Amino acid sequence: MTRQTPPSPPQQVRPRRGDDTAAHLAGPAHPSGWDGTPIDHDGLLWKPEPGTTVTFAQFLQARATVCEIVTDTWNPWQRAEREDELRAANLVFEQWHRAEPGFRMWTADDLPALREETRTRLDQEHRRDEQNRLARIPSYDPERHQTRLALLEQQSRLRSVISHLDGLRDRSWTPLMDPAQRADEITRCQTRLAELDERVDQLAQTVGDPETVIDSHGRLPSDHRELNLDGFRHWRHQGITRLRDLITGLRIRHDASTDRAQRSELRGTIAYEQQELTALEAISEPDVADMCSECEKPSSWHEGPYTLVLPTGPCHQWPEEAEHRRETREWLKEFRKRPAAPKQPKPQPIAVIPSGLPLDQILTRLAELHTAHPDAIVRRGNANKWELWPPASPTNPPPPAAAST
User: Fold this and answer.
1) CB within 8 A of 131, min separation 6: which ones?
2) What distances in angstroms separate CA 344 from CA 67, 79, 341, 347, 352, one per listed residue?
3) Phi, psi of 78 (to 5 degrees)
4) Which of 65, 241, 274, 315 has minimal CB crowding within 10 Å?
């Protein structure tokens, strides 16, 4: 439960430091080894419950476990998954309590006033932020805003070229590349690096401090990063929840199925979905400063190439990337308008000689067909028939072999 801020302890209270555990746990006055002096840890005073055998070190470890589980908003499902661990840690945590003179725990009667105080403080902060945002709107410069986005894009490309060039030089990128080809690639990278470096310098001079550039709504890049981190957290939580439910359902279907082909297909689907789930669960919580100011992704995701599991790649708000996406959408629209190609008729043989005929009839028929089609090819058809096909060519590939009966 939330605790009130305690008053400063009087001078006669001489607390021990929390890191001096070995010195004050040796006393025999208390089952836990406590010597009767309140222990100061991170500015808070603590003392054990009468008769407890829980040491201060055990209490600190339990307290850290409780805080880790309860305050984890990045992996909120851990509270349910680690319920037994939390219950055991709470039993240890409750064996020590605050030791400041006059300190008391908040009760249920205090909660309404605390909620109102918090609500009032948040409302004041929101009104102040809104006033600042509205006051910045007249200073919006569309050209500077777009130039800043171009600067971010070129800086990302510059870092990518530098990384690629370093990989070429230390041979960590394509170690078996031909030396002459590697030298040519290094030369191209150096040329590209000089071009990007010059371009970045020009844009930086125009933009100035990128963190002071506002958008049309009066928001700064730092404002967007806070919102984008919330969106990124929500996207990850939704993805993990959806995939866990999906995989659970697939496994139930797999265990209940008796069809080998279906079970094999389900195992493949489970493996594919599990790969994405593992990738999402492995994402560590980024700091606000690590987020892209233009989309709900970490900035580092814009440095690497596209992947099939995570939505990495250039930011869709960057000018050149945005133009490339617009051109791609236009191309797809035009492509959908094209009439469908006429369905090609199924290739048919020139002639078919059924099986089971007398030999003289077969020879006669073959002689007639040889006269009319001297370059034709005989292939085995369905039901052991003989099929006469035109010779294979780049424009006339051979037909697929018939299945044996």
Assistant:
1) none
2) 68, 61, 9, 9, 21
3) -65, -25
4) 241
Q: Quick one: residue 54, left, alpha or beta (phi over 0 = left, psi -120 to 50 = alpha)?
A: beta
Dihedral over Cα of 200, 204, 207, 213: its sign: positive
Q: Which of 68, 67, 41 is nearest to 56 (CA)?
A: 41
Q: Alpha-carbon distance 155 to 165, whole Å? A: 15
Asked whether 148 and 216 are in contact (CB, 8 A), the reply is no
**Residue with token string 């493949």:** 268
Cβ contact 54:95 at 8 Å? yes
Q: Answer for the pair 275, 212: CB distance below 8 angstroms, yes or no.
A: no
Phi, then psi, of 291 in degrees rounded to 5: -85, 150
User: Given the DSSP bridges, would you call strands 16-17 and 39-41 parallel, antiparallel or unpaired?
Assistant: parallel
Show the tokens assigned to 272.
């594919």
To the nearest 10 degrees (0 to 180), the angle between helices 221-256 and 260-281 is 160
Q: Quick one: tokens of 149?
A: 């986005």
363 residue type, one letter: L
The pLDDT confidence band at residue 149, using thresholds 50, 70 and 90, is: very high
Q: Which residues have a Cβ under 8 Å from the Cβ of 101 and sit 6 or more positions away?
A: 7, 9, 10, 13
Domain boundaries, the chain: 16-106, 140-212, 221-336, 351-389
Q: List pLDDT tens digits, range 190-237.
A: 999 999 999 999 999 999 999 999 999 999 999 999 999 999 999 999
Euclidean distance between CA atoms 231 and 242, whole angstroms:
16
Encoded tokens for 16 = 């021990």
**Alpha-carbon span 67 to 39, nearest angstrom:** 20
Asked whether 165 and 147 are in contact (CB, 8 A), the reply is no
Q: What is the pLDDT of residue 208?
A: 95
pTM for this predicted structure: 0.71
The structure tokens listed for 333 are 């629209």
Which residue's entry shows tokens 């777009």?
146
Distances (CA, A) of 128 to 76, 230, 358: 31, 21, 102
Residue 25 amino acid letter:
L
Query: How many CB atoms lie under 10 A from the CB of residue 25?
Result: 17
Closest C-alpha to 76, from 234, 190, 304:
234
Phi, psi of 392 (to 5 degrees): -70, 145
For residue 79, count other CB atoms closer than 10 A to its CB: 13
